[in-house]
Amino acid sequence: MVPPAPLDSSSSVPQTPIGSSAQSAVSEQATKSRFGAESAMSLLVESLKDRLLLAVPKKGRLMEKTLELLAGADIKYNRAHRLDVALVQNHPIALVFLPAADIPRFVALGSVALGITGQDVIAESTHADQITELLPLGFGKCSLQVQVPVSGPLQTIEQLSGGRIATSFEVLAGELFKQVDDQVGKGKTQVEYVGGSVEAACALGMADGIVDLVESGDTMRAAGLHAIHTLLTSEAVLITSRTPHASLTPELAPIIPLIKSRFAGVLAAKKFVYASYNIKRESLAAALKITPGRRAPTVSPLEEEGWVAVSAMVERKAMANAMDELEKTGAEDILIFALDNCRVGV
């Protein structure tokens, strides 16, 4: 048998280290990888020093709607895969992606200057008194409600006193049933934390009732439950700390009203349309009751004697009815324009 020819030292085939040599090579490679990651993180941390930090939800419907809002406000950024910090390209801002429930704490402590999260998680946190709500954002609307089986024997919160409640809102549920227990005097209600699928707790015999968020109510009804008490209504809000962190420099502070104004403009553009029409002056008073505008309509005389042109912002949901009513008053040339963006007083 002919023995295999030895590899030439100039061959492109790599030599595989053996024993301790292999471990050294792997260790060296790992060290380089860690060094690279640490260097990248150090650069990222360094780049945050002169930026305003805005915390946004990192998953779910709140994140989707928040990203739409950021796009409408022309806040441009690139987010690297699996990285929860993104630098904004056209403003000295950095986005920090966090669980919605953690955002109140980060904002209250001044770790970030602004945050977007739900009023429900703010109320559930222990930092509500340290937070200022700057702007309601009109999405993520829901209600936190006490729910019980439709056909069950317990149909009031007083009847639930002393029983078992399953919820992911331990603080709010605990506060409610402490008050009820004190009034009824039947004993302490057991409030148990359940992280998900809370609506199944009653059917599984884990609870007499639940405290959970209701958006459309479909999940509640599918589980054979109905609401008997509402603790609060909630929507997403833009928040800041009542005690701004020292990192909020005079150069960065003006960005807060800028973001608020841009967000308000995007929301107003979604809520309103711009209506324009011509009408006889004698019918103007009746028409203005239909289109009063956000502040006041614009009325301009036409070249034709006795006629005026009117323009006003009208709520999108009332647009069709407004056009019908304007037509009845004698308005002509009724035009509706969609708004891409706007600036409104907030």
From TrEMBL:
GO MF term set: ATP binding; ATP phosphoribosyltransferase activity; magnesium ion binding
UniProt xrefs under SUPFAM superfamilies: GlnB-like (SSF54913), Periplasmic binding protein-like II (SSF53850)
Domain spans labelled Histidine biosynthesis HisG C-terminal: 269-341
A single BP term in Gene Ontology: L-histidine biosynthetic process
The name this protein goes by in its record: ATP phosphoribosyltransferase
EC number: 2.4.2.17
Pfam families: HisG, HisG_C
Region (Disordered): 1-26
Top EC class, one word: transferase
GO cellular component terms attached to this protein's record: cytoplasm
Main location (coarse class): cytoplasm
Bias (Polar residues): 8-26
PANTHER family, per database record: ATP PHOSPHORIBOSYLTRANSFERASE (PTHR21403:SF8), ATP PHOSPHORIBOSYLTRANSFERASE ATP-PRTASE (PTHR21403)
Family statement: Belongs to the ATP phosphoribosyltransferase family.
Cross-referenced InterPro entries: ATP-PRT_HisG_long, ATP_PRibTrfase_cat, ATP_PRibTrfase_CS, ATP_PRibTrfase_HisG, HisG_C, N-reg_PII-like_a/b, N-reg_PII/ATP_PRibTrfase_C
Keywords, sorted A to Z: Amino-acid biosynthesis, ATP-binding, Cytoplasm, Glycosyltransferase, Histidine biosynthesis, Nucleotide-binding, Transferase
Biological or metabolic pathway of the protein: Amino-acid biosynthesis; L-histidine biosynthesis; L-histidine from 5-phospho-alpha-D-ribose 1-diphosphate: step 1/9
Localization, UniProt: Cytoplasm
Biological source species: Papiliotrema laurentii (Cryptococcus laurentii)
Known catalytic reactions: 1-(5-phospho-beta-D-ribosyl)-ATP + diphosphate = 5-phospho-alpha-D-ribose 1-diphosphate + ATP
Domain ATP phosphoribosyltransferase catalytic stretches: 100-245
